[in-house]
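Researcher: Let's do a round of design. I'm pasting the structure tokens now; please hold your answer until I've finished.
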């Protein structure tokens, strides 16, 4: 983070985002996670939103050691030609990582109800970062999550209800923020399909190019 940042400028997202009643009923509540990093929100210009929190807390973003989510995300940025080797490198770039679903899932596919419920928490999280210009939506849950928010705020979807490969290169916006739908980069699934890994790298490159043009 910048040398001129004062402690008074920092916030810890986990102190602002809480789920009190856990209405979903189909998650591991004990795994509820929101980033606990101390950060100046004004320095964040890109959000990268993935699917859900990991079952193992040691795999989560910002966890010490070598968390899986961080490892695969760094590899995605490296595939895009970015010289990054730590979570701090991404923070210095103005990138904030989070999930749509704040708990770990207990089945392969998260339900629409779960995404709708958690979208209220995601909406509160987005508000914390006033200078965001780009949101990368990594996977179907993230795309559905931002659409839930958009339907409440602007009364329509922000992203069309089509397959990701059809929409990933389109021009999508939500309240002046450019949206880049892509594929899930967090977790072991990142290694399964080389074609998707290539597309993730392309999408990161496009998002960063747009962001740098706005600077």
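Researcher: That's everything. Go ahead.
Model: Designed sequence:
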């Amino acid at each position: 983070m910048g040398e001129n940042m004062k402690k008074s400028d920092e916030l810890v997202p986990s102190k602002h985002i809480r789920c009190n009643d856990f209405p979903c009923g189909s998650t591991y509540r004990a795994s509820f996670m929101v980033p606990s990093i101390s950060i100046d929100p004004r320095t964040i210009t890109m959000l990268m939103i993935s699917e859900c929190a990991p079952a193992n807390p040691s795999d989560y973003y910002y966890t010490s050691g070598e968390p899986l989510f961080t490892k695969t995300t760094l590899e995605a940025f490296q595939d895009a030609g970015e010289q990054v080797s730590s979570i701090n490198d991404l923070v210095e770039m103005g990138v904030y990582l989070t999930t749509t679903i704040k708990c770990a899932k207990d089945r392969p596919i998260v339900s629409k109800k779960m995404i709708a419920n958690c979208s209220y928490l995601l909406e509160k999280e987005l508000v914390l970062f006033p200078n965001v210009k780009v949101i990368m939506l990594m996977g179907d849950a993230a795309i559905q999550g931002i659409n839930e928010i958009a339907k409440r705020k602007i009364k329509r979807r922000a992203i069309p209800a089509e397959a990701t490969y059809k929409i990933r290169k389109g021009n999508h916006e939500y309240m002046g923020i450019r949206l880049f739908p892509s594929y899930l980069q967090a977790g072991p699934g990142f290694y399964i399909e080389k074609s998707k890994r290539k597309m993730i790298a392309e999408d990161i490159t496009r998002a960063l190019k747009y962001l740098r043009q706005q600077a």
